[in-house]
Amino acid sequence: MWNAQADSLPVTRAPIESLSTDDSPRISGENEEHVRHLAQCVSPLPPIIVHRATLRVIDGVHRLRAARLNGQTHIDVQYFDGTAKDAFLLAVERNAHHGLPLTRADRNAAALRIIRSHPDWSDRMIASATGLSPKTVGSIRRRSGDAIPQLNARIGRDGRSRPVDNSERRRLAGEYARTHPQATLREIARESGLSLATARDVRERVQKGASPTLGGRPPGGPVHRPAAPAPAARNPDQGGVTAFALAETLLLLKRDPSIRLTEHGRFLLRLLDAHALANRRWEELVDRIPPHCAAKVAAAARECAASWRDAAQQLEERARAVDGRGAVNTIA
């Protein structure tokens, strides 16, 4: 995979003047203020990633310029062995998800370039690399014109090729979800050949009594609607039992070296921190949403909640497979 083991590449020293900063995904160039901020850092900065074949900096242009500003002649680097296309993909993925993020214009331009270089990639696959939503990638693909090949199948994030028109697979997934109401998303996806995200959409449609296919008619027969879980008890003064338990869990995760000392772990902690708001803070935030934006924010919140729910289900399944006891500790 183009980004496999990028964090575990060996570190070596390289002369700064030998490195190139061409072909950056940043349309407007580097941020001078960010360069000055990095130049003032006392602690060592992470090594930069360089494409070995071209000596082009993939990730760390700001760090390179900060080192040059401080008068350094050499810098720690990790050499990436791959094609030029893979190097650009890694540059986009790294700069879209950590450090000084790419602007929306940068990510849109990167998505268009990836669509042209990898027309067989699904919208979700490209979205995962650019930090855009799959809908935005799909819109960019449609606006790109006839120059982009229109393929019958695309490769998803799991590496599997799936047909662009997946109506039949959606129908199979819907039938399986109706006859196996307790099936997990992974089971539905495995039986139908769909991605987890599409399997989730199909299951939600079936639970609402809608057709599993886009624009289809609802099927006949009874619809299984699982009972909604009872909401967790909350204390209005302290943010509730759930908020307290979440804070305890976050504290334990932040102390775990396998989480706090890895890039993906720190990214996870930032995501959890952003969502770990007490009940009163959520109420204040909701109250300040302009009425004309309420429906859009609600839709976005539901999509985020569904993604977190799917991630939790996958993690619980992994935990069960590891401990073999069939019981997982979850936050109430």
Automatic annotation (TrEMBL):
Region of interest called Disordered, as start-end residue ranges on this chain = 1-28, 205-236
Spans through the membrane: none
InterPro entries associated with the record: ParB/Sulfiredoxin_sf (IPR036086), ParB_N (IPR003115)
The source's domain of life comes to: Bacteria
For bias type Low complexity, the affected ranges are 222-236
Q: Enumerate the spans annotated as ParB-like N-terminal domain.
A: 12-96
Name-wise, this protein is ParB N-terminal domain-containing protein
Q: Which organism is it from?
A: Streptomyces bauhiniae
